[in-house]
Amino acid sequence: MNRSHAIFLIGLGLGLGIWTACAVPWRDDRVSSPVSGVLRRDGEAVSSGTIRLVVRSVDNAELGGLLEHDLGPDGRFDFDAVELRVAGHEYSHRYFLLLYWIRGDEAVTLWRADYGRESMGGPIPLVCSLERAPREGPPCRFVGDTRDQPWLLEAGARDYRKLCETCHGAGGKGGSSVVPGQTQPAPDLTRIATRHGGTVPAEEIAIWIDGRDEPTAHGTRQMPVWGDRLGDDFVSGGFTEARIRNRIDILVAYLESIQVESIPRPDAE
């Protein structure tokens, strides 16, 4: 056997091996991170009803999974990572995860995430409050370290570049010059925690980004009313307050990750 034939056979073998691994849909692969948390209403644990977790492929409507269990007396829920029998070539495909609370005829969408499998990250801890109005955001909020969630940082970074970078700069350190229509440079977003005693007031920042509930939203406010503009993004897919505030929550989580001052992280207890 000459050298060229040997190289050809080695290449053919490698190609077949890769094709077999990527094209044969025989193995179970992880398509979500574990999700856990506690459900409350008016500060008390919700101990009735069922929590349902649904994972679906964005690209393949037939590919998905569902897990559910009844809430315990302490309002806790805990789901292992979802595994589906997928082909290896679907590894880079995108998925969405939906979490519901169901009791009788009542059903509430608690939380939503869109992510790629290559950027899933670690376990997802949540705290959920059923009295949180849709205008304030989804009932569940992520309370872990955003640095453990590449998908969360990527989603927040994408919206930062789209919505904020022109005024606040690529690193969030504030505008060095005044953007047309503004009377002063945009503030440094990496020092929100410094200006608020070492924490980022997430709800306050989210309301300010949304802008529709701010008394100056249509007056002297320099920043766009992003609640209106994000609503325009969702017109074709169905306008919902929860989708707007879910997107803003993710942006706030990204802002937490770029703070120059270390932020203490709450847990899901």
Account of the protein in words:
The protein folds into 2 domains: 27-131, Immunoglobulins (Immunoglobulin-like); 148-257, Cytochrome Bc1 Complex, Chain D, domain 2. The chain has 6 helices and 11 strands. It has helices at residues 3-23, 150-168, 192-195, 202-210, 226-233, 241-257; strands at 27-30, 35-41, 44-45, 50-57, 64-70, 76-79, 83-86, 94-103, 106-116, 124-129, 140-142. The strands form 3 sheets. Strands 2, 3, 6, 10 and 11 form a 5-stranded mixed beta sheet that branches. The chain has a 4-stranded antiparallel beta sheet with strand order 5-4-8-9. Strands 1-7 form a two-stranded antiparallel sheet. The protein starts with a helix and ends in a 12-residue tail after the last helix. The model is unreliable at 19-24 and 235-239 (pLDDT under 50).
Return Rg in Å.
22 Å
What string gives the helices and strands in order? HEEEEEEEEEEEHHHHH
Largest sheet: 5 strands, mixed
Q: Could you say which structural class the secondary elements and strand pairing correspond to?
A: alpha+beta
Mean pLDDT: 79
Residue stretches low in confidence (pLDDT < 50, at least 5 long) are 19-24, 235-239
Distance between the termini: 67 Å
CATH topology title of the largest domain: Cytochrome Bc1 Complex, Chain D, domain 2
CATH architecture of the largest domain: Orthogonal Bundle
Strand content: 15-25%
How many extended strands? 11
Estimate the global geometry from the Cα principal axes: globular
- Give the fraction of residues assigned to helices: 25-40%
Number of individual domains: 2
CATH class placement of the largest domain: Mainly Alpha
Number of helices: 6
